[in-house]
Design brief:
Largest sheet: 5 strands, parallel
Distance between the termini: 35 Å
Number of domains: 1
Radius of gyration: 21 Å
Shape: globular
Oligomer: single chain
CATH topology: Rossmann fold
Number of helices: 8
Strand content: 5-15%
Helix content: 25-40%
């Protein structure tokens, strides 16, 4: 009996010494490829939606990404400042823009390359000023293949700018443009449609006339893209990787 009491006491002492990780928040800022979706948009799914379910209870994911936003409009609409004001030491900011910044035909959101780069630097510097951790992400690729079935680059002007800023300021980088292209190539020209908002007329009540969208993901595509991001978090050896729920 004394031995049992001793063992129980020892276990209690050891458990008291086991420190739980401090709670942190992972903030996602970006565009529609990352954002939460309204019910009427389903099955369109931003990759930030499944992403939040892969962490233990020490992590809260706040998805501030918004459809149609560029770095410029995200700042002009006062979407960044509330995030910056809440940041604390140990938090993360995942930064993924580009789709709307590069849309020259949409003057309400277009951001010139030099301004795009300047805005990325602003996000990085203001995150670090609050002792939080910025992570830069190249814009996820669109589905585009050539006649020979080879996937095509769709962010040639803007992805390199993200990489430049990451190198210049020593920021962890996830090259989601490159990784997503590899995913589409793996699926192939036809089967890669299974990752996107591709619907025939009458197939879904939200899109009675069908949908042929090679930018936005469905549930499967969003989950696979989020898993790429999680894998890259582990490859980068970020502290956040320790909070990913391990497979049993």
């Amino acid at each position: 009996m004394k031995r049992l009491t001793y063992i129980i006491g020892l276990l209690l002492v050891l458990s008291a010494w086991t420190t739980q990780p401090d709670p942190i928040v992972v903030y996602l800022i970006g565009d529609s490829t990352m954002s939460e979706k309204e019910t009427q948009a389903y099955p369109e799914t931003g990759w930030g939606m499944p992403f939040k379910y892969f962490f233990d209870n020490s992590v809260t994911v706040e998805n501030h990404a918004k459809n149609g936003r560029s770095t410029r409009t995200f700042l002009e609409e006062f979407r960044w400042q509330p995030v910056a004001d809440k940041l604390k030491a140990g938090d993360y900011v995942f930064i993924q823009f580009g789709h709307n910044d590069e849309s020259k035909e949409k003057v309400d959101r277009y951001t010139a390359p030099e301004d795009y780069k300047r805005n990325l630097i602003k996000f990085v510097q203001e995150t670090r000023a609050r002792k939080a951790n910025p992570v830069l992400i190249t814009p996820v690729g669109r589905r585009r293949f050539d006649g020979s079935g080879n996937v095509q680059e769709t962010h040639a002007a803007y992805s390199p700018l993200v990489i430049e800023v990451a190198k210049q300021f020593n920021v962890p980088l996830i090259d989601l443009d490159k990784r997503s292209q590899a995913l589409y190539q793996q699926f192939g020209k036809e089967n890669s449609k299974l990752l996107f908002l591709q619907l025939k007329p009458g197939e879904h009540p939200n899109y009675p006339e069908g949908k042929d969208d090679n930018t936005h993901f469905n549930e499967l595509g969003a989950r696979l893209i989020s898993q790429i991001v999680l894998e890259e978090i582990q490859n980068l050896k970020l502290e956040l990787a320790n909070r990913i729920i391990k497979k049993k």
